[in-house]
Amino acid sequence: MKKIVLTSIVALAAGTALMAGVNAAGCKGCHGQNFEKKALGKSEIVKNMTHEEIATALKGYKAGTFGGSMKGIMKGQVAKYSDADLEAFSKTVGK
Ligand code: HEC
Structure pTM? Predict the structure, then answer.
């Protein structure tokens, strides 16, 4: 019995770890399937930005220290993520 309980706790923890991080599906409506579009005709093409630029932008939107006239939109997108999540994500897009 003890073993079964332990196994389910481990399985639960693994599942949670997999779900953590930025859900890119929520970005694609505006930024394009491969981040190849100017979101709402306004943003930089994220695919052409460097990993560092993307990390700076995402953390800056969250902190309210970065962005143009439509930064409020991006704040809503990133506020729920940790800086570590945003940094990890920034390494998966851009160049
Ligand atoms: C509702 C549309 C929308 C969604 C959804 C959205 N974005 Fe954006 N994004 C924008 C707009 C508009 C801008 C430009 C904002 C500004 O004025 O600074 C932007 C800017 C950015 C920038 C900086 C580019 C620049 O112009 O410097 C990055 C990086 C970015 N978004 C990544 C993301 C990521 C990652 C997600 C998903 C978690 C996401 N966006 C979801 C509309 C969106």
Answer: 0.86
